[in-house]
Amino acid sequence: MRLILLGPPGSGKGTQAQRLVQQYGIVQLSTGDMLRAAVAAQTPIGLKAKDIMAAGGLVPDEVVIGIIRDRIEQPDAANGFILDGFPRTVPQAEALNELLKNEQMNLDAVIELKVNEGVLLERVERRAAETRARGEAVRPDDTPEVLTKRLASYRDQTEPLIHYYSDHRMLATVDGMMPIEQVTEEIGRILQAVGKGSGSRAAKKAGAAKRSAKSAGRAPAKAAKKTAKKAPKAAASAKKTGKAAKKGAKAVKATKKAAKAAPKKSAKAAAKAAKGTRKTSAKAAKKRAKG
Ligand code: AMP
Fold this sequence. Notes:
The chain is of the alpha/beta class. 65% of the residues lie in helices and 8% in strands.
């Protein structure tokens, strides 16, 4: 599974990425963490990035693209990854497309965590206080002043990615103001709908089918279609277990739809499957589309 978590600072990308790492056994690729490590180690990249980061700006595209290129090629990223904090600009997104194409990898979903700006400030202040209480050093960019700049960077340079991935029918939006657990569940539903859920039988079969199709040299979409034929069975058993299962059945349905469509369209199906449980984000998406 390959997934992008998109959202402003403090929207919970890191928290959710860590939970996904536990659930799916894939790696979290956080350009922020990598850059902070480079700053601490005083590498040439770190020296270049230090002041930009402290001021709340964005490190040049070619620097972060280079970091991600090297990281994606590492063996531990072969099973899949969660991109947290990358891409942050349209050129980065385009470079990522190119990178994935060269590596013959697909992107399964782009999930936007939507959170009000007022809440972000509170969250970042809380994060700084908790870090201080643990006796650890607070990030120099976790101050209200720098956060304001980081939010401006997000609005100007990263928000266009929401339209970019929405145009590419890859975007699913989650209300990031819900409790952490609920956000994780919602992400799980989206992943299930694109055939990547951790628990669903259909998803497991889709994974196995995709793997065997790959080794047999068949197109993954074909394999997914084959799996989707068996989805109703999974849906029927899911129905038995009440409300939560109903959602599962919905997701299986969406998996079937997604599998029928071209791989690119699977995220659209994901967005559809999650629609019923995130009216707020659907409204926001409409607004964005209008504007
Ligand atoms: P984060 O931990 O994701 O909030 O990132 C911390 C800082 O690292 C950001 O404010 C940027 O200065 C820099 N950074 C992280 N990822 C990127 C990226 N993809 N492009 C440019 N700058 C980045």
